[in-house]
C-alpha cells in the first residue's frame, strides 16, 4: 500500500506550500454583465459616478458590456473587488469578481 506524500526511495517527501505573498498579490477583477433591465445610459452613468471614469471610458466599457456581454471594470485586491461588486449590486447592475488572468 502506498502512502500519499511518501517518497518511494524511503525518504520523507516535503510538500511545498504556495508563496502566500504571490497569492495575496494576485489581482482580482470586477466584471459587470449585460442585463435586460438597465439602460445603456444608466450603466455609463454608474461607471462615471462610482469609478470616477471619464465619459469616454464609461461609454467604452458600457458598449463592451452591451456587445460582448461583460466587461472588466476594475482590478485590485480581493477586498477592493468585493466592495466594487457590492456597489454595482447596490446600483442594480449584475456584477461578479474573479481572479485576473
Automatic annotation (TrEMBL):
This is ATP-dependent Clp protease adapter protein ClpS. The gene is clpS. Binds to the N-terminal domain of the chaperone ClpA. Involved in the modulation of the specificity of the ClpAP-mediated ATP-dependent protein degradation. InterPro entries: ClpS, ClpS_core, Ribosomal_bL12_C/ClpS-like. Pfam families: ClpS. The lineage of its organism: Bacteria, Bacillati, Actinomycetota, Actinomycetes, Propionibacteriales. Residues 26-96 form the Adaptor protein ClpS core domain. Belongs to the ClpS family. Gene3D superfamilies: 3.30.1390.10. It comes from the Bacteria. Keywords: Hydrolase, Protease.
Amino acid at each position: 500500500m502506498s502512502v500519499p506524500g511518501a517518497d518511494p526511495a524511503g525518504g520523507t517527501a516535503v510538500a511545498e506550500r504556495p508563496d502566500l505573498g504571490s497569492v495575496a498579490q494576485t489581482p482580482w477583477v470586477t466584471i459587470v454583465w449585460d442585463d435586460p433591465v438597465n439602460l445603456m445610459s444608466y450603466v455609463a452613468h454608474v461607471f462615471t459616478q462610482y469609478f470616477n471614469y471619464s465619459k469616454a471610458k464609461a461609454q467604452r466599457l458600457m458598449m463592451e458590456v452591451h456587445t460582448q456581454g461583460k466587461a472588466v471594470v476594475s482590478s485590485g485586491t480581493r477586498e477592493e473587488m468585493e466592495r466594487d461588486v457590492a456597489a454595482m449590486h447596490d446600483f442594480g447592475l449584475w456584477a461578479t469578481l474573479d481572479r485576473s488572468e
